[in-house]
Design goal:
Elements (H helix, E strand, L loop, with lengths): L2 H10 L2 H30 L10 H9 L7
């Protein structure tokens, strides 16, 4: 099913169903973010110095990230 069809179907929903859909999508987003935060916390809490990055390595990696498309 295409995104356009999903948008049309969502627009046709009654207000209570639209709210339920919104809450469903928000919960999906929040779960994904909380999973990513847990993963980041595991990395930050790693006691092994061999896994750590220097500030220069962090800056280099950040510079390699392509800018978002508009």
């Amino acid at each position: 099913m295409s995104l356009e069809i999903l948008k049309r179907e969502a627009a046709a929903l009654a207000e209570p169903e639209r709210r339920e859909l919104f809450l469903f999508l928000a919960n999906m987003r929040d779960k994904k973010w909380s999973d990513e935060i847990r993963q980041a916390a595991r990395c930050l809490d790693d006691p092994d110095p061999n896994q750590w990055l220097t500030l220069d390595e962090v800056c280099k990696r950040l510079d390699e990230i392509p800018p978002p498309e508009r």
